[in-house]
Design goal:
With 462 residues, the protein is mainly alpha-helical. 67% of the residues lie in helices and 6% in strands. Strand 5 and strand 6 form a beta hairpin.
């Protein structure tokens, strides 16, 4: 392996670890906001119990997401210094805005959210929870704006030294053509990821005790999210695909396995083995003209293939082809579980169908697999470019020797599996414990906000 490939593998490894934590914390922060809001509105202790239950898990997830994100940012200077030099004037301010807005907001209110349950009023604590949830969304906004600009660069000028410089309009950079689609698709994926984790945990405890009110409530809420959001996500993915066809046609060609052009309607290849050497998909199972129908809304519409693009600009078809299918398959599996839960709910058997609960447990980690598969599709499908069509990946890497990159990669692998493996193990231990079986409405309310603690509260008057 050369330094370029090792640097790509290192970034892929670290970002894969990092991505699973924000994908969970974005949705979990919003779920905590909903739980506390419902508790304040209804006064039912089951919501307070669930809030405390998931707050511990959120704290660990958030911490691991922050730590893994810091490591990623360092790689822009170590392994990708040429990219940082050329694209820094555009992406640098956007990443700084993420720190100045989202991270400061999260950091400012996270302490109140975690440690202020019995120290501040209910309204202020709920405001802190809302601030953290909003902060996670703002963080996604800026990071996805950076990524989307790399996919569909607009609003820039080329400097005399080859740098990408901001043009007259920052909104043109921020709201680049793929950004709205990528933002909605990714945030919705985060909500679905959280829904299936919560649903899987609830189902696990329902299999042990169907009468547990906390398990029943979290499973019900998660299945509502799955049933309502999964179809929305499928539609959002389709719209995102149409946007990608317009701006990154080579990526769509790789996703569809279209090595050759189809002037009279392209087939939809369901499964097969991409053969880049022979420029075909072996053992393909396909639906005639269905790809043209989906992408052009016309079964006979022509679709260009990779034969219309120089070979040195082809993405790695095999990786993109299969990662896309994994993502789509999991999306429809989520839809299936959501619809199954609606049937059970209509028959008043949501808590009484063990096979539904077992399916929900099995689908618990599906969101993480789906978001990683989606990320692989997006990033590998962009190759061989870092800034699409303008800056090649081979021209973005730092002038490093392969042994140096290999050594840091090995260190990352060892440390990541040790540290984040321990964190994940602890989260699973917390999830294995059932939520409080009895309702309690003692979530918040200051014992004493100022002054001297009354003697009656510390054991007497003498």
């Amino acid at each position: 392996m050369d330094a370029l490939l090792l640097a790509r593998v290192q970034f892929a490894f670290t970002v894969s670890f990092h991505f699973i934590f924000p994908a969970f914390s974005i949705g979990l922060a919003s779920y905590l906001m909903v739980l506390e809001g419902l508790w304040l509105k209804t006064g039912r202790g089951v919501y307070a119990n669930l809030y405390r239950y998931w707050l511990k898990i959120f704290a660990i997830t958030f911490a691991m997401g922050v730590v893994s994100g810091i490591v990623m940012s360092y790689q822009f200077g170590t392994n990708w210094s040429v990219f940082s030099d050329k694209a820094g004037p555009v992406i640098g301010p956007l990443m700084a805005y993420e720190v100045l807005t989202a991270f400061f907001l999260e950091a400012g209110f996270l302490g109140v959210m975690l440690f202020g349950i019995n120290k501040v009023g209910k309204g202020l604590h709920f405001a802190a929870t809302c601030a953290v949830a909003i902060g996670t969304f703002i963080s996604a906004f800026w990071i996805l704006s950076v990524n989307s600009w790399m996919q569909t660069p607009t609003g820039f000028e080329m400097g005399a030294n080859g740098q990408f410089l901001p043009g007259e309009s920052w909104p043109a950079i921020i709201f680049n053509p793929s950004f709205p689609y990528r933002l909605f698709h990714t945030v919705t994926a985060a909500y679905l990821t959280t829904a299936f984790v919560v649903g899987g945990v609830g189902a696990w405890h329902l299999l042990k005790d169907r009468a547990n009110p906390g398990a029943r409530k979290m499973f019900s809420m998660a299945m509502w999210m799955a049933a309502l959001v999964a179809p929305v996500q499928i539609v959002a993915g389709d719209l995102h695909g149409l946007n990608t066809l317009e701006h990154q046609p080579a990526k769509i060609m790789a996703m569809e396995g279209h090595y050759q052009s189809h002037p009279e309607g392209a087939p939809l290849i369901l499964v097969g083995i991409p053969n880049s050497a022979e420029k075909r998909v072996d053992h393909a199972v396909q639906i005639p003209k269905a790809s043209s129908l989906i992408l052009k809304h016309d079964a006979n519409a022509p679709l260009a293939g990779l034969d219309t693009i120089p070979e040195d600009e082809h993405p790695p078809v095999g990786v993109v082809f299969w990662s896309f299918r994994i993502m789509v398959a999991l999306g429809f599996a989520m839809l299936g579980v959501g619809l199954w839960s609606l049937v059970a709910r209509a028959r008043r058997s949501l808590y009484d169908w063990p096979w539904l609960h077992k399916a929900a447990v099995l689908m618990g980690p599906s969101g993480f697999v789906a978001v990683i598969a989606g990320w692989v599709t997006t990033e590998v499908g962009r190759q061989p470019w870092t800034v699409y069509g303008l800056l090649r990946t081979a021209d973005s890497v730092s002038p490093l020797d392969a042994p140096a990159v290999a050594a840091s990669l090995l260190a990352f692998v060892i440390v990541y599996f040790a540290v984040f493996g321990a964190g994940t193990w602890y989260i699973l231990r917390l999830m294995a414990k059932p939520p409080e079986p009895h309702e309690s409405a003692t979530l918040a309310g200051p014992v004493r906000t100022a002054g001297i603690t009354p003697a009656s509260q510390i054991g007497g008057t003498h």
